[in-house]
Write a structure and sequence with these properties.
The structure holds 2 protein chains of 2 kinds. Chain A folds into 2 domains: 220 residues, Rossmann fold (3-Layer(aba) Sandwich), CATH 3.40.50.300; 77 residues, 2-Layer Sandwich (Alpha-Beta Plaits). Helices cover 33% and strands 30% of the residues of chain A. In chain A, a hairpin with a 2-residue loop joins strand 4 and strand 5. By secondary structure, chain B is an all-alpha fold. Chain B has one domain. Chain B is 75% helix and 2% strand. A two-stranded antiparallel ribbon of chain B has the order 1-2. Classes of the chains: A alpha/beta, B mainly alpha.
């Protein structure tokens, strides 16, 4: 059973194609990242899953329930933490959570869970205050509690750590990792690529409404054809290297030489032999494999 | 299927919201109406006969009650939904398994409750000036439900269509207020020049005011049955408009 399945999903706003025939499956219990530049279609995709936007064609389902035809079942199974810090100024945190729980048809029986959420997110002392008295980080936590109030098996977090300081970010990730280990499927968008790289098992990259990549993290990291050779120079002038190698030189601090090399076209042995022929001596040598940031830049370059 | 508890929670939220700011939502309209009464009762001769056997104050009080209901029912749904849209917190309702019809019913239901609270408050406060007994409570309730329901639905419509507070204010000041002032709250349409008398018959507010007043004073300008039919038609049309906008998603879902 898949947590989320998306088939040939397209959305256009007039002549603007926000999503173009996206196919994607996210398994139960996965920790999944949805990456892409601003305007790539991430929010449109999330909004279609949440029922906030209607697809122009194609279908999307949450745990097998079509988000259009079986929208009640689909919404019961989905929790969404929106990107904007929107809040209702009339009610206290506890009242907000009680109301949100009621919208999902849950009454008194859910009070225990609301208390648990307040404790788990460090909000119990603020439970009786309204949100305009909270800091940005606290507001973010309330949004997470609101998304979880009906115990959804699939949770979407749209940039949960935007504008959040380092300590709180770590807390949030611990909390989200905990949810994942208790069986929740987690789908997140973020602009902090290191976060996606360390936490997510599978990564999708959207660019201009199309799927630029969809693969397990390790496979995606292997996909780049480029790596860097970094040398600490002791002696010799890199200026005398052949034209072809000089073209691969990247800017580096004095005393260092950095070459961006293709995995197949620039065999390391041949490159080292060139360096030797040119009389370059070095004290240290490092090969840097590409991180998600490099791959992301390659895939989303226009 | 009907998500009753979801509907009930949203309805309760809407009622709870206006009760939390009741000085503005209940006390202010009641005081405003008391000022009208103070002014009109001292300027216009009380003995003046507005309808056969009905003096001015007795004529005025039920009119003011129904006008306050109309305006406050509209204000409740329009300001609540529009504020939620501007703040962005309407998203939490849109993410929940609540249908368009449940959404409509919750907002209109709360607008009706606000209308009834204000209407009752005005009636009670007006008894300082004139005791106007209610003769047919069930019929009065029917008119009260229709007028606050219709205006609650129109409030939804304006909150969905509007792009800024200015638009809500325009709808309120250029549509709701003129139509309710010109509906015969303060005067009998018999005293109007023929053209305006005819024009009044095209104003649905006129039937709501006239029909509601007849349940207090026992006489009316047109038949109460006709008023009830027109009122029901007006309520249904406003509701259909609101439900159609909700179904299209218009400014709420894209």
């Amino acid at each position: 059973m898949t947590a989320v399945s998306i088939e040939k999903l397209s959305k256009n706003y007039g002549s603007l194609q926000a999503l173009e025939a996206i196919d994607m499956e996210i398994g139960k219990g996965e920790f999944f990242a949805l990456l892409g530049p601003n305007g790539a279609g991430k929010s449109t995709l999330i909004n279609i899953l949440a029922g906030l936007t209607r697809a122009s064609s194609g279908r999307a389902a949450v745990l097998g329930y079509d988000v259009c035809r079986q929208w009640r079942e689909a919404r019961h199974r989905l929790g969404v933490v929106p990107q904007e810090l929107a809040y209702d100024p009339f009610f206290t945190i506890r009242e907000l959570l009680t109301l949100q729980s009621g919208y999902f048809g849950l009454g008194r029986e859910n009070r225990g869970w609301i208390d648990e959420l307040l404790v788990a997110l460090g909000l119990e002392e603020k439970a009786e205050t309204t949100m305009n008295h909270l800091s940005g980080g606290m507001k973010r936590r309330v949004l997470i509690a609101q998304a979880l109030v009906h115990r959804p098996p699939v949770v979407i977090l749209d940039e949960p750590t935007a504008g959040v300081d380092v300590a709180l970010r770590r807390q949030l990730w611990d909390f989200i990792r905990g949810l994942n280990s208790r069986g929740h499927t987690i789908i997140l968008t973020t602009h902090y690529l290191e976060e996606a790289e360390t936490m997510c098992e599978r990564i999708a990259i959207l660019n201009h409404g199309r799927l630029a990549a969809l693969a397990p993290r390790s496979e995606l990291l292997r996909r780049s054809q480029w790596r860097r050779l970094r040398l600490q120079l002791v002696d010799g002038d890199p200026g005398c290297l052949p034209e072809a190698l000089l073209a691969k030189r990247e800017s580096a601090p004095p005393g260092e030489l950095v070459l961006r090399l293709h995995r197949e076209r620039d065999p390391l042995g041949a490159v080292l032999a060139e360096l030797d022929r040119c009389g370059l001596r070095f004290s240290d040598l490092k090969i840097q494999e590409p991180g998600l940031t490099e791959i992301y830049s390659e895939l989303t370059a226009d | 299927m009907f998500n009753f508890y979801g509907f009930y929670t949203l309805f309760a939220r809407e009622v709870w919201r206006f009760l939390k700011v009741s000085i503005q939502t209940i006390l202010t309209p009641v005081v405003t109406v008391l000022l009208y009464l103070l002014i009109f009762s001292s300027v216009i001769a009380r003995s003046r006969e507005m309808l056969p056997g009905v003096d001015f104050l007795t004529f005025l009080v039920p009119g003011l009650v129904v006008m306050a209901m109309l305006q406050n029912a509209f204000a409740n749904s329009s300001s609540s939904l529009f504020q939620s849209r501007l703040n962005g917190n309407v998203i939490f309702v849109l993410l929940a398994p609540i249908s368009d019809f449940e959404f409509y019913l919750a907002f209109v239901g709360a607008a009706v409750v606000r209308g009834l609270c204000v209407g009752f408050g005005v009636w009670a406060a007006a008894s300082l000036f004139a005791l106007v007994p209610l003769q047919r409570p069930l019929a009065a309730l029917a008119f009260a439900l229709l007028c606050s329901g219709a205006l609650g639905a129109l409030g939804l419509v304006s909150a969905i269509i509007a792009d800024k507070w200015d638009h809500i204010a325009a709808f309120q000041n250029f549509v709701i207020v003129p139509f309710s002032f010109l509906s015969g709250v303060f005067f009998s349409i018999r005293d109007l020049p023929p053209f305006w008398r005819q024009a009044s018959l095209f104003n649905p507010f006129f039937y709501l005011v006239d029909g509601f007043r007849s349940t207090f004073v026992g006489v009316s300008e047109v038949s109460p049955t006709l008023s009830l039919v027109v009122g029901a038609g007006f309520f249904l049309a406003s509701s259909a408009w609101a439900l159609w906008l909700l179904a299209r998603g218009c400014n709420l879902r894209s």
